[in-house]
Amino acid sequence: MIDPKLIRENIDLVKESLGKRGDAFVNLAKLTDIEGQRRKLIQESERMKSEKNALSNEIAKLKKAGADAAGQIEHLRTIGKDIEEMERRVKAVEKEWEDMTLVIPNIPHDTVPVGTGEEDNTVAKVWGEKPQFDFDPLAHWDIGEKLDILDFKRAAKITGSRFTLYKSYGALLERALINFMLDLHTGEHGYTEVLPPFMVNRETMTGTGQLPKFEEELFKLDGLDYFLIPTAEVPVTNIYADEILREDDLPLKYVAYTPCFRKEAGAHGKDTRGLTRQHQFNKVELVKFTAPETSYDELEGLLLDAEDVLKRLNIHYRVSLLCTGDLGFSSAKTYDIEVWLPGQNIYREISSCSNFENFQARRAKIRYRKQGGKTDFVHTLNGSGLAIGRTVMAVMENYQAKDGGIVVPEALRPYMRGITKIPAAS
RNA sequence: GGAGGGAUGGCUGAGUGGCCGAAAGCGGCGGUCUUGAAAACCGUUGGGCGUUCACGCGCCCCGUGGGUUCGAAUCCUACUCCCUCCGCCA
After folding, report:
1. Of A64, A159, A296, A378, whose CA is between 20 and 30 Å from A322?
2. A124 touches strand B (CB under 7 A)
3. What is the rounded CA–CA span in Å between residue A356 and residue A332?
4. Cα dihedral sign for A354, A355, A358, A359?
5. Fold (topology level) of A118-422
6. Model's pTM, two decimal places?
7. In this structure, is the CB of residue A369 within 7 Å of any atom belonging to strand B?
8. What is this model's ipTM?
């Protein structure tokens, strides 16, 4: 949620930022109007309550003194009725206000390039080089089926489209990457590992911004108001919902492995082959809670921590800075890490690292106590570190050998029983 | 699934209808003392919202939502969560 003060005091900034996102918010006038109404009604109702409290105290005193208070009691009775009516109006307006503010996206940071879509993103850095092959590199789905380590057909039989059955070295590679990343981030980057619930309630989903606007993207349990998480960001960021943290404890850094579940409702017919876009995929996620002053430095650090995974695997990638038009709903600034996939001849997003500033903290009520005792909202950040399925693709396509096998990146060997190569099909 | 008990401020824990936003202790912060620290003593110490240039003033919050009452942390009710015992179970 953006700061309500902005709506009141700087509606032009809100208008401008929404414009930059290409997300024209037609009813800003109405929102300003509701905000005015809301405050007017609150003031009026508080005035009435104040009167009620004074009268109530008076009655208490009279009663204590053994005096008669029938007149005051009668008066209070009528005030009470008026207050009830006023409360109804306050609640109605506050509901309306909340419904509107919860669907307003975050304000982009000043350093975010203005643009309308993917094509306006800028390349922030490039690491490594495209590998050269003396044969035509295959896409991972071909490699996977040839080696019988990825089985898309049977997964479709078991469940449906956009699921994968990993087999043998495929399953081992997936598991190795999870462990490799968790060990790297906990052991060398200072993150604390958590293993959160994979389904969460509606409030939690609202806290990080998935709800109320994106319910059609989520798998919901039948008969329960629980949802399967689309990313570990949701349960992990909400660890401190409704809490006040100590300034000395910041920044707090967590890493979590979870599966992620997404409907991919708007992606019919897109990326239908291979591991690219699945209803269920694994991810190791990094989450930080920071003081507002340091959050942009922490974003750069988070990005480096995520990049480090690919560096150690020695896989070429570039980092793009998303423009205003491509920025996610809750984010103020996002870097995407795009990994090189020689089998498909494309760069593909493998991590998304964002600073949400206090947008999520405000929704989830995550605060910290500053020097001097005042409380303020923390800044929340997160980034994939990395998406496992897409890393599997990257390893398979970048490390494929002429004979059809896959060389195991050195960093991964300790996690794969020491083997140096996934052997070619016999 | 059955039976019972509970939910109060950072923590422990009083409070069963009328200055209770809430005793007390611990913790935290400030001070006295001390070369410094500890101890002791004194003081201070919840959050949110509205209003105000500010001091301040007002409203709301005792798990959550309803209800009773002139008045609710206290009574009723539904829900949620936690604990104990029994059953079942990876």
Report:
1. A378
2. no
3. 5
4. negative
5. BirA Bifunctional Protein; domain 2 (3.30.930)
6. 0.93
7. yes
8. 0.85
Chain B nucleotides with an atom closer than 7 Å to a protein C-beta: 10, 18-19, 47-51, 58-60, 70-71
Quickly give A373 CA vs B42 C1' distance in Å: 22
Rounded CA separation A311/A299 (Å): 18
Q: Which nucleotide is nearest to A362 (CA to C1')?
A: B48
Taking only the tens place, the pLDDT of each residue in A247-259 is 888 899 999 999 9
Is the CB of A202 less than 7 A from some atom of nucleic acid strand B? no
Record: fold of A4-101? Helix Hairpins (1.10.287)
Integer distance in angstroms from CA A93 to C1' B60? 17
As given in the structure block, the two tokens for residue A133 are 């092959």
**Residues A220, A6: Cα–Cα separation, whole Å:** 34
Tens-digit pLDDT profile for residues A274-330: 999 999 999 999 999 999 989 999 999 999 999 999 999 999 999 999 999 999 999
Scanning A340-387, the segments in alpha helix (DSSP H) are: 359-364
CA-to-CA dists, residue A84 to A48, A79, A96, angstroms:
10, 9, 19
Q: Which residues contact A337 (CB under 8 A, 6 or more apart)?
A: A303, A306, A307, A310, A317, A318, A319, A349, A350, A351, A352, A353, A384, A386
Domain definitions of chain A by residue range = 4-101, 118-422
Identify the helix (H) or strand (E) that includes residue A350.
Answer: strand A346-355
For strand B, is any atom closer than 7 Å to the CB of A223? no
Q: Contact A7/A97 with Cβ under 8 angstroms? A: no
Structure tokens at A374: 């005042």
